[in-house]
Write a structure and sequence with these properties.
- This protein is of the alpha/beta class.
- It has one domain: P-loop containing nucleotide triphosphate hydrolases (Rossmann fold, 3-Layer(aba) Sandwich), CATH 3.40.50.300.
- 45% of the residues lie in helices and 11% in strands.
- Helix 11 packs antiparallel against helix 12.
- The two termini are 30 Å apart.
């Protein structure tokens, strides 16, 4: 079993450049045919044979891995990976928790995953806040697999020095270094272009249908639809997202402060910029293929 399961997982959390990492690594390692299988946290009931089948097009001699941002907060995923792939390398990516939470909320609204306004979502969707408990979840991953098997990285480094970032990552997972292309080094807005969907219920149904197709190993069909003009029927076209009030932003900063301060100690990194509500500034940018990461 160990020879056919991944040797590494990039566990996120969501909205930390994981789509960019998927695109950059897909020609260097064997990744599942489905971009996010959700196997170890949500689809485990499909069985190990189903999961192995996601790597049916794996090329000999390449390491297997999965880019799986939802695994970060999942105790089930952590325990199952520790059980079935105890030697796996785990990569975490940390981003300013308030910026990341807002980006995740926008993604969930844009894809019809939740219908609530921001205040309601903070109460009714536990993942929004739980995925910002960086230190707590990092310690849990290290406790389950060992400190030397879990790498803490930072979105700021991915954004500002992508080549140095990818060098560190591939060294950790045991993949030869490679040079990023000019297009991979390009930058565009990460999520500011997202809007509310034209019709929540239509977008919601399309998202459920996409999951149904992925579960039946038809993820490539979903990917083609997303790149086609049909995608405009389901995504975007609605009103732009409003910015949270300064008061709410400050409250979120304070809520995340203990986790950020503990992460500072664990990683020996100054994260003071994350602990105060920043002044309004241009949207964060990441490499161009990460527009939905």
């Amino acid at each position: 079993m160990m020879t056919v399961l991944p040797s590494f997982f990039v566990v996120g959390p969501p909205r930390t450049g994981t789509t960019w990492l998927h695109e950059v690594l897909k020609d260097r390692v064997n990744l599942p045919g489905i971009k996010e299988t959700r196997f170890f946290d949500f689809n485990f009931h499909y069985g190990m044979a189903w999961y192995r089948a996601q790597f049916q097009n794996a090329k000999p001699g390449r390491r297997k891995g999965e880019i799986a941002p939802t695994y970060f907060v999942s105790a089930s995923a952590r325990e199952r990976i520790a059980q079935f792939v105890p030697a796996a390398k785990i990569v975490c990516v940390f981003r300013n928790p308030v910026e990341r939470l807002l980006s995740l909320y926008r993604l969930k609204i844009a894809y019809g995953m939740i219908p609530w306004n921001f205040d309601q979502a903070l109460v009714r969707d536990p993942e929004l806040m739980e995925s910002g408990r960086y230190a707590t979840n990092l310690k849990a991953w290290r406790g389950a697999l060992g400190e030397d098997q879990v790498l803490a990285t930072f979105y700021d480094d991915l954004r500002d020095e992508p080549q140095a970032y990818i060098n560190r990552l591939v060294d950790f997972i045991g993949v030869p270094r490679f040079q990023l292309t000019d297009s991979q080094l390009g930058f565009v807005n990460a999520s500011e272009s997202m809007t509310h969907p034209r019709n929540y219920h239509r977008t919601r149904r399309a998202n459920i249908a996409a999951d149904w197709f992925k579960a039946r190993r038809l993820g490539r069909l979903v990917a083609r639809v997303k790149k086609s003009p049909l995608c405009k029927l389901f995504l975007g076209g609605g009103s732009p997202f409003a910015e949270p009030s300064s008061e709410l932003s400050v409250q979120m900063c304070e809520a995340f402060r203990p986790e950020v301060e503990e992460l500072e100690l664990i990683s020996n990194r100054d994260l003071s910029a994350w602990k105060n509500h920043p002044p309004r500034r241009p949207a964060a940018q990441i490499p161009s293929v990460a527009t939905t990461a």
